[in-house]
């Protein structure tokens, strides 16, 4: 194989086998390995391209993501400008996501607080009812026990009196 028919540099399945990818530098295999991209990485790449579309940087993002290590003929200043623009767009996206998260957290907190107070007041009400029932039962038990004791002792006294009468 000559240089003109060699594949472009990039990540390819490892010719030695396995599930890793190996870097082809255009002339030979390097000792750089990486795992295959996960579904999350594909989603992140799609999101990066969407962000780049929003900023009008689609062509530059495609060039950067497909060329790997090579900047695709871009000058260093152009590449740095593109990188700074992508960083700014990414910062804006992170700030937007943080604001959205904060807003949702505040909404969830405001919805959760009435639930807590509602269930807390319901619990306290049930606790008060349970305490009243327990107090009533304890009083009833003492009244029953004292009546039962008086009745038992009266009965016992009558039995003893009747023993001597016969």
Can you tag this structure with a few keywords?
3 strands; mainly alpha; 166 residues; 3 helices
Write a structural description.
This protein is mainly alpha-helical. It has one domain. The chain has three helices and three strands; from the N terminus they run E-E-E-H-H-H. It has helices at 39-54, 58-67, 76-165; strands spanning 10-13, 21-24, 29-34. Strands 1-2-3 form a three-stranded antiparallel β-sheet, with no helix packed on it. Helix 1 (39-54) packs antiparallel against helix 2 (58-67) and helix 1 crosses helix 3 (76-165).
Order of helices and strands: EEEHHH
Work out the strand percent: 5-15%
Total of DSSP H or I helical runs spanning 4+ residues: 3
Q: Largest beta sheet: what is the strand line-up? A: 1-2-3
Gross morphology: elongated
Distance between the first and last residues' Cα: 133 Å
Radius of gyration: 41 Å
Helical content, roughly? 55-70%
DSSP strand tally: 3
Structural class: mainly alpha
Domain module count: 1
Give the averaged pLDDT, no decimals. Answer: 79
Runs in which pLDDT lies below 50 for 5 or more consecutive residues are none
Please describe the topology of this protein.
Layout: E1 10-13, E2 21-24, E3 29-34, H1 39-54, H2 58-67, H3 76-165
Antiparallel strand pairs: 1-2, 2-3
């Amino acid at each position: 194989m000559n240089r003109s028919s060699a594949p472009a540099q990039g990540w390819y399945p490892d010719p030695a086998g396995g599930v890793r990818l190996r870097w082809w530098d255009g002339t030979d295999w390097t000792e750089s390995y990486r795992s295959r991209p996960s579904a999350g990485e594909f989603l992140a790449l799609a999101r990066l391209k969407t962000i780049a579309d929003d900023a009008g940087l689609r062509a530059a993002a495609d060039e950067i993501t497909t060329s790997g290590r090579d900047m695709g003929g871009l000058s260093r200043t152009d590449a740095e400008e593109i990188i700074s623009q992508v960083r700014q767009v990414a910062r804006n996206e992170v700030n937007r996501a943080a604001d959205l998260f904060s807003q949702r957290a505040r909404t969830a907190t405001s919805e959760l607080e009435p639930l807590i107070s509602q269930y807390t007041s319901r619990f306290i009400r049930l606790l008060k009812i349970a305490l009243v029932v327990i107090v009533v039962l304890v009083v009833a038990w003492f009244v029953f026990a004292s009546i039962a004791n008086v009745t038992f002792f009266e009965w016992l006294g009558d039995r003893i009196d009747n023993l001597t009468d016969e």
